[in-house]
Amino acid sequence: MNIVKLERMIAVYEAGSFRKAARGFGMSQPALTWSIRQLEESLGLSLFERGPSGIRPTEVCETLIVRARLIVNEHNRLLAEVERTNRSQVIVVGVHPVLLNSQFAHTVATFRAQEPTVTLRVVEAYSADLIALLRRGELDLAFSAAPEGEEEEVAFEPLLRQYYSVFGRADHKIFGEIAGGGEITQHAWAQADAPNVAAGRAAGAMQHDNANLVLELLARFGMTESTVAVRSASMHLIRRMVLDGGLLGMIPESQFATELHDGTVRQVPGSNIEGPPLGLLWIDGGYETVARRRLKSALRIMQAPERLEIIPVPDIAA
């Protein structure tokens, strides 16, 4: 038994077909079938039941596939770590879009002064994608939200919480509608294209509760599928669409501190919401260089943003 055969077993399991799995490897179906038979013989058990309607994993295969994935992921992480060690010192850190702010920039500058020979490669993505990259060994460290459910191999150290509000330019019509106590008309929105929000749109109320709570809150202020003009994974773009495009958008409060102070933008009353805890994630038990430990220490001292004054929920006409 070797890693290649485990990868092929996983591919057949996920594809549900020898033909589809073989195409993914660029090999013939008979060659892949023979490779799986060799694995079955070495294990002394059957992994897939063959029938006229296709293949079906056996009960023992269902058990083995969990361990096989862990072994393959660990193998890939080891190769990636060795490759990075053999190169000039590079730390690959994944960062949630809401954390790419001036505080993060100052922290990176401070770290660079301490470690002038280290290059940081920053990958911007939402939490689910960052955790997947971390598990595959493509990241050394992530700075994002906690994983949903239990992730045995992923360690999480909570550091701060982020608070969100709906913002619009100071001259946006929604503020007059709310102040007048009338009905909120349809306005164009910019929405974060986060995986959990997309799942919340597709799933029922029993799943992705946090995402559905956000969508329900936004709906109170008139956001619907038809009023979303821009959907993007870039928090910077959503911020610019609010400032320069005149759209409404839910943004971390810390991102508009300067504009709120000078009156360029306003916070929509009653739209405050607390996000999930944010912090550091890494593979538990993995090897850490001195530079990586220093980067974690630098990120730990990033200060949580000050809260905005919570504006009471207004009476909104139905």
UniProtKB/TrEMBL annotation:
<dbReference type="InterPro" id="IPR005119">
    <property type="entry name" value="LysR_subst-bd"/>
</dbReference>
<dbReference type="InterPro" id="IPR000847">
    <property type="entry name" value="LysR_HTH_N"/>
</dbReference>
<dbReference type="Pfam" id="PF03466">
    <property type="entry name" value="LysR_substrate"/>
</dbReference>
<dbReference type="InterPro" id="IPR036390">
    <property type="entry name" value="WH_DNA-bd_sf"/>
</dbReference>
<keyword id="KW-0804">Transcription</keyword>
<dbReference type="GO" id="GO:0005829">
    <property type="term" value="C:cytosol"/>
</dbReference>
<comment type="similarity">
    <text>Belongs to the LysR transcriptional regulatory family.</text>
</comment>
<dbReference type="Pfam" id="PF00126">
    <property type="entry name" value="HTH_1"/>
</dbReference>
<keyword id="KW-0238">DNA-binding</keyword>
<dbReference type="GO" id="GO:0003677">
    <property type="term" value="F:DNA binding"/>
</dbReference>
<dbReference type="InterPro" id="IPR036388">
    <property type="entry name" value="WH-like_DNA-bd_sf"/>
</dbReference>
<protein>
    <submittedName>
        <fullName>LysR family transcriptional regulator</fullName>
    </submittedName>
</protein>
<keyword id="KW-0805">Transcription regulation</keyword>
<dbReference type="InterPro" id="IPR050950">
    <property type="entry name" value="HTH-type_LysR_regulators"/>
</dbReference>
<feature type="domain" description="HTH lysR-type">
    <location>
        <begin position="1"/>
        <end position="58"/>
    </location>
</feature>
<dbReference type="GO" id="GO:0003700">
    <property type="term" value="F:DNA-binding transcription factor activity"/>
</dbReference>
